[in-house]
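F.,

This is the one I mentioned.
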């Protein structure tokens, strides 16, 4: 195929995706998400990162999802791969009022697994990433193999679509770096809510680059917390009846009217 034809097809595919997202999310969310992408484009050009140099891992770069073979009807709702800042992940974990040994850490949309490796610096019960691209999942698995995982050896990447994932009945920290749009978020939260109804337990959600925080705000079982990090943070406490207003005293909860 001539180069100009293939370039034309790529541009058309990008325009189709942009139009789809604009119609689906509205202008404000579309612009917010576009600005985030541009802001991070520059940083991601400076690969390999210090983290990758130190551990011989491959977590860098930006990978648009249209370049990947993804077997999911939710591909168009997904956001391209780009790793979190390791220091941000540490600050987020340390800001939560938890003991890591009582929790599993789950990165939803984990890509090449950077946050799983960083989380292994803490003694979590278990660490796992959910990723729907087979290529990114394979890179994550190799990264986990190479990394020393200093405080938690039970680290894995799972090849799955977050919209259909069944959460296990453990106290859980969910980490999301703006992985997908409203539809998948809603499906994921519905599954999470069903599992909490079945087995009530502590849940914390760190939602970084929180384009669709409204979905969490309106979930009905998660409360927004005020935590000094650049992310929307939510929690659900066991036997904590939001309707009867009984938050734990040491955490400041922001209530939506
Ligand atoms: C912005 S990257 C975040 C990577 C990683 N969480 C981090 O912070 O370093 C978003 C990731 O979500 C994945 N993703 C998007 N939609 C998904 C879905 N429905 N199920 C699982 N993974 C998904 C993408 O493939 C991509 O790797």
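My design for it:
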């Amino acid at each position: 195929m001539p180069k100009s034809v293939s370039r034309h097809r790529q541009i058309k595919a990008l325009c189709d995706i942009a139009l789809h997202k604009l119609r689906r999310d509205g202008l404000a969310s579309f612009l917010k998400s576009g600005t985030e992408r541009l802001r991070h484009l520059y940083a991601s050009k400076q690969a390999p990162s210090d983290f990758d140099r130190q551990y011989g891992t491959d977590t860098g770069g930006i990978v648009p999802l249209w370049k990947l073979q993804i077997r999911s009807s939710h591909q168009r709702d997904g956001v391209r791969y780009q790793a979190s800042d390791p220091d941000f992940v540490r600050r987020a974990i340390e800001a939560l009022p938890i003991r890591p040994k009582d929790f599993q850490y789950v990165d939803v949309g984990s890509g090449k697994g950077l946050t799983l490796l960083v989380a292994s610096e803490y003694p979590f019960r278990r660490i796992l990433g959910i990723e729907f691209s087979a290529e990114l999942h394979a890179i994550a698995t190799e990264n986990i193999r190479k990394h020393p995982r200093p405080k938690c050896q039970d680290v894995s990447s799972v090849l799955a679509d977050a919209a259909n994932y069944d959460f296990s009945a453990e106290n859980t920290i969910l980490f999301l770096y703006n992985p997908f749009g409203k539809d998948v978020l809603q499906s994921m939260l519905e599954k999470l809510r069903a599992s909490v109804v079945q087995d009530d337990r502590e849940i914390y959600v760190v939602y970084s680059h929180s384009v669709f925080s409204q979905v969490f705000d309106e979930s009905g079982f998660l409360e927004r917390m005020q935590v000094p990090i650049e992310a929307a943070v939510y929690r659900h406490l066991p036997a904590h009846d939001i309707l009867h207003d009984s938050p734990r005293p040491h955490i400041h909860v922001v209530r939506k009217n």
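The CA atoms of residues 7 and 70 lie 21 Å apart.

Talk soon.
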